[in-house]
């Protein structure tokens, strides 16, 4: 048995390979993002470059067993391809998207991916907020934001119509495109499979592009007639939207090391990371009698939160409920929400102060300095920085407001700390943690108060799960909830490849489905068994976050700051909406 999981992140592609009687192997290779000089909101990538790196992460001597599978998780980015007829055969070729309405269109560019962080579609998001039915907007937290695929698709349609482009275009979710390419690649290019999956469900998850019916795309979104939403066709279970792990094809002969590997239907990367950390899959089964919920926090460059619940009501500011990810009739609905920049904020801090940190591990270096300051002053950093405040929606707000015009606000107060570059660094570092934790609490409180969902436990995975200052502060402001970090570096599961590991579990699920007789597939049983077999040992390696001691003054300071964050965020939201209302 060989199962390969691929995770395509913002800055790298990662593989996680499991073969029978062998230790898992991982590989990480960088991928580039391209920022348009004339408009930094335009951020693109090249699918050709990513595919090359993807294949490079898989060793040429990968083991072929009786059962072999591969699955892909990727960012919620949109791949744009043009249908070209070459020697009487239709191929899907890169269609460049590294431009805006004002800049030059470079036909030879290979930048065919609109990255999830790309915010060129702000106008289209506003237009959709005015035109879409309320019940559709409610599943997206009440508002469309530029980050969503639905806004990017509308932007592309508007651009094509404005420039009278008549070329036939096909757009894909990124994970779906690479699954499709693996099964349809030839020596001449990627074949256009005339049986491209035509999804006819009522709505898409997370405001993405895969899931809308053709009538919705044409009549509600007004998508140009020469643009289609592509996808991978499914075999086995006959569903409008195949669940994760559904068998969707085999790898073509163009990729010799993994030729004929079964391809499992993948997902957006936050969900593959979630699969990797899911230790109790039976808790997802509908009508299990437990109305309380467990929150999964997948914290990396950005942070995604996933919540399974028996509830079916929409919640303002929260995406969902959705039931397409898993086999719909057996599992609870999912809610999804997040913070668009978490690890990214720390990365930018490290770059800003690179002269100080370049010879050290960034987090260890900053934490050591904080400890020195706390020891010398005899007070916690919470108390030392009580007069400082940072509201960090530097890249807009995803939850709980779905307002990408929100921006960061800094209040520099007096403190007992001296002013020098190193102290400035540790202050910004601490305030970033404080903001992320307090905003997370704000989101949780909205879910519990407005959604009626009681969250008992928070499980944290991803690179930020190693940040003990952050995890302890999460516990401090959520004292009644159990806080658990998933796995550790000692488990041979580096946090950076958690998503790839989850994708390898999805690949295994696909091979399990392939062994079943047609019409007799018990998806619920196969899903829960496959997850349990892979993740049961993680239960013994999770770390329960505990506070050695609690300082009442620390709690008071954070309570006041949380009160202020709620007031300040609502005030900024009102300000942003007032500007739009007055069309300023």
From TrEMBL:
SUPFAM superfamilies (alphabetical): Actin-like ATPase domain
Question: GO annotations under biological process?
Answer: pentose metabolic process
Q: Which domain of life is it from?
A: Eukaryota
**Cellular component per GO, a single term:** cytoplasm
Q: What is the name of this protein?
A: Carbohydrate kinase FGGY C-terminal domain-containing protein
Database matches in InterPro entries:
ATPase_NBD, FGGY_C
Q: Which lineage is the organism of this entry classified under, starting from the top rank?
A: Eukaryota, Fungi, Dikarya, Ascomycota, Saccharomycotina
A GO MF label = D-ribulokinase activity
Instruction: Using the record's annotation, list all stretches that form the Carbohydrate kinase FGGY C-terminal domain.
Output: 296-473
Cross-referenced Pfam families: FGGY_C
């Amino acid at each position: 048995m060989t199962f390969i999981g691929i995770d395509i992140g913002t800055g790298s592609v990662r593989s996680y390979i499991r073969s029978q009687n062998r230790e898992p192997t991982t590989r990480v290779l960088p991928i580039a993002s391209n920022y348009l000089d004339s408009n930094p909101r335009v951020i693109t990538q090249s699918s050709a470059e990513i595919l090359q790196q993807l294949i490079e992460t898989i060793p040429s001597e990968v083991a072929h067993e009786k059962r072999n599978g591969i699955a892909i998780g990727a960012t919620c980015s949109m791949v744009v391809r043009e249908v070209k007829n070459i020697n009487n055969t239709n191929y899907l070729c890169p269609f460049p998207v590294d431009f805006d309405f004002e800049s030059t269109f470079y036909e030879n560019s290979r930048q065919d991916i609109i990255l999830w962080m790309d915010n060129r579609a702000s106008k289209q998001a506003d237009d959709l907020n005015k035109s879409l039915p309320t019940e559709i907007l409610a599943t997206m937290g009440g508002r469309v934001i530029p980050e969503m695929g639905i806004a990017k698709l509308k932007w592309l349609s508007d651009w094509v119509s404005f420039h009278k482009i008549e070329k036939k275009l096909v757009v894909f979710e990124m994970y779906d495109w690479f699954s499709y390419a693996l099964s349809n690649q030839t020596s001449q290019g990627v074949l256009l499979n005339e049986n491209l999956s035509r999804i006819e469900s009522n709505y898409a998850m997370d405001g993405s592009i895969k899931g809308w019916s053709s009538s919705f795309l044409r009549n509600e979104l007004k998508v140009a007639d020469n643009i289609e939403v592509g996808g991978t066709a499914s075999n086995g279970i006959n569903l409008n939207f195949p669940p994760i792990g559904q068998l969707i094809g085999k790898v073509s002969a163009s990729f010799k090391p993994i030729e004929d590997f079964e391809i499992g239907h993948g997902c957006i990367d936050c969900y593959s990371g979630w699969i990797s950390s899911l230790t109790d899959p039976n808790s997802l089964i509908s009508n299990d009698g437990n109305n309380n919920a467990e929150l999964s926090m997948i914290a990396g460059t950005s942070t995604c939160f996933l919540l399974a619940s028996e509830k079916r009501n929409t919640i303002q500011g929260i995406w969902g409920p959705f039931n397409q990810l898993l086999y719909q009739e057996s599992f609870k609905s999912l809610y999804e929400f997040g913070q668009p920049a978490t690890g990214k904020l720390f990365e930018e801090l490290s770059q800003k102060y690179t002269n100080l940190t370049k010879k050290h591990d960034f987090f260890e270096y900053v934490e050591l300095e904080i400890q020195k300051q706390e020891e010398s002053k005899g007070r916690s950093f919470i108390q030392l920085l009580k007069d400082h405040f940072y509201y960090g929606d530097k890249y807009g707000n995803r939850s709980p407001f779905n307002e990408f015009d929100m921006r960061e606000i800094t209040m520099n107060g007096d403190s007992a700390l001296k002013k020098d570059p190193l102290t400035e660094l540790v202050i910004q570092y601490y305030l970033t943690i404080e903001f992320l934790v307090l905003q997370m609490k704000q989101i949780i409180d909205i879910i519990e108060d407005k959604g009626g969902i009681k969250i008992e436990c928070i499980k944290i995975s991803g690179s930020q799960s190693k940040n003990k200052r952050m995890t302890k502060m999460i516990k401090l402001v959520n004292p009644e909830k159990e806080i658990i970090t998933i796995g550790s570096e000692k488990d041979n599961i580096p946090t950076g490849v958690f998503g790839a590991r989850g994708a390898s579990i999805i690949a295994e699920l696909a091979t399990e489905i392939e062994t079943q007789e047609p019409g007799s597939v018990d998806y619920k049983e196969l899903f829960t068994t496959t997850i349990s077999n892979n993740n049961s040992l993680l239960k013994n390696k999770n770390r329960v976050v505990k506070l050695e001691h609690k300082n009442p003054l620390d709690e008071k300071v954070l309570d006041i700051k949380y009160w202020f964050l709620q007031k300040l965020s609502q005030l900024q939201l009102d300000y942003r909406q007032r500007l739009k209302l007055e069309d300023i």
